[in-house]
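Running co-folding for 6-O-phosphono-beta-D-fructofuranose.
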Amino acid sequence: MLLRMARPIQYLGIGFVVIVILGLAIAPFSKRLIEQWSRSDVEARSRLVYNAIQNPVVRAIADGDASRMSSIFEGVALDERILAVGLCDDGGRLLYPTRLMPATFTCDKVARSEAESFATIINDGRRIMVGAFPIVERNQKAYLVILTDLSFIDARSGEAQAFVVIALAGVAIAVAGVAAIFVIVLLRGWMGSLRRAIEDVRSGALPSTASGNKSSIDGQIKKLLSEIELGRETIRSEQIEWSPAALQKLLHKLLPGAEVLVVSNREPYIHNCNDGKISVQTPASGLVSALEPVIRACGGTWIAHGSGGADRETVDRDDKIGVPPGDPSYALRRIWITEEEQDGYYYGLANEGLWPLCHIAFVRPQFREADWRFYETINERFADAVAQEAKTENPIVLVQDYHFALAPRMIRQRLPKATIITFWHIPWPNAETFSICPWKERIIEGLLGSTILGFHTQFHCNNFFETVDRFVESRIDREHASVASGGHETLVRAYPISIEWPPKALVGQPPIDECRRQVRQSLGLAADTRLAVGIERFDYTKGILDRMRAVDDLLIRVPAWRRRFTFVQVAAPTRSKLSSYSNLQNEAVALAEDINARHGDGAYQPIRLLVRHHEAEEVFKLFRAADVCIVSSLHDGMNLVAKEFVAARDDDDGVLVLSSFTGAARELSEALIVNPYNTLEMSSALDVALQMPASERQERMRLMRLQVRERNVYRWAGRMLIDAAASRQRRRILDISEANHAR
Ligand code: F6P
């Protein structure tokens, strides 16, 4: 802005200087000009007088009539400019001088020539012009002398100079005025933007509550609406400060009356029975931790597999229960799956087939015909449940993940007008890799039943386009990021998933120092022990063995860390029925024991492996107690653990060591980015992290927190809803136009 202001001000300044220089140059010039004009004027007047009185004067001389001569001369001298008139004879005598003839004037000051002449004399400090005009009478020559006071010229040129100065000053003042107004206008605009920017920063620093900053959200959404209504589908989600309230408003304004249905395998609340007592558990699932705050904000029904031991006991006759427990804001509809079905659909096709197929972790995918049939059956069951739960013909259905690749098309068959937003939470491999899947065409066609298909990164979208191009008949429009197939169009876009901000698990957390103290005490560690943590499901894609090897390498290369450093790995058991998972657990336990045996002693165990599920509050306490968090996934769609660690650190401290093979690495570039396959690189990063100065830690963490706060999960959902609204509008327009053509 200042740069934009500088150029016009420069021009105005130059203009002002030019005017002043002009003024200085014009002043003497104008004086000279006026002097010349005035003298010519005086000469012309004198000449006129001479011509007018020449004959009477000649006659008076001839008659020797002195009194006539005097009266002629006195008459002429009445002119205000003419000072005196007289006659100089041939002998140089002054005859008939009028009353005001200066006493000092003598005829020898008059040039005696054949023609008229003019001279200037000074009398009493006044300039006087003397005009001499020859008069001839009977061979006698005389000169009519007319004296004109020139002091009026000085007055006149003084006035002219003053006029020029005043005029130029006027112009200069006008120019300065224009410049001042210009600067004021620009400054006001600039101050306005500055104020708005400060407001933005301020409001960003104070996360809004459900009731907070309503009117600003209203305004933002009104603006978005008008943009959409104008057909400009260029809503910039950056314009909105994303919060539950903003998401609710957006939904109500953009998609009024729309009902929201979520479909996922994992349920957000699992009821189990322990010692005859029913307890609720929230699962270790990135999908759940991202989606739950969204549906809490929007309301609706979440359809998921009822996997808990006490799930059937807690639902009503429609297999539903209001959640969150104690403060219900949406309905959880549970779907029952037999063990056999679970083995085929979940463990088999989803987790032994698609999971390793989509993650580059070098575990061979297994595809079995029987698993595929169960996969189809369960997808049908969920699609039926959607149709049952839908109260309107066009609900918004949020289908989650690789468990439901077939469901979008099945839902479309049941509810053709539904807006189906499918999100694929894991990576999408390249076409060559995907071609391994025996049912690749069916999976792609199933997904293309969606209105919108989302991935974490553009890279995964591109892989999907490439796969579609290779295996199904379709028209791909990369400019609009869409695929048309079987008369239906699907938008394929990147929506990087995130977490709620501020996270619920942060509420009630003790201060950082207290967390550090409590965690070290509970683990039996010295108060000054440096702590690194890793927290996830016990999954081979997470690189748990690789980070343990990095810890081992660090302790070998830098033995000074022994007894001063501990690594805590929290690993929630998952999919343990599968050998790839149970083998990993066994291997990890063995590796931890080996490392502890080599570097530890009775009291000191450099690796603490805690194999159990931790609730979010415990996880956040660990994050807050840690110096370093290690996320070393071999391949990961996003990885929300990295974002949760950042969100937990409201002290702006702590270092994140993050695998370059996570989607999160594209956003959290201030982390120490590592290749988890490179043990030395990872152990060196750990060493750097443990020694990093506080100022650098804080600078990195502040930037990452800003990123996670702004790109939170409400933005993730909001961006999809914005696109869904635009797509519904396009659908409406197409329907109207088709109806018109049909008439
Ligand atoms: O990222 C894929 C995902 O569906 C996430 O929700 C979560 O990290 C994990 O897989 C959940 O696995 P599961 O539901 O099989 O325990």
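Result summary
The chain is about 50% helix and 15% strand.
The first helix runs from residue 2 to 63.
Job closed.
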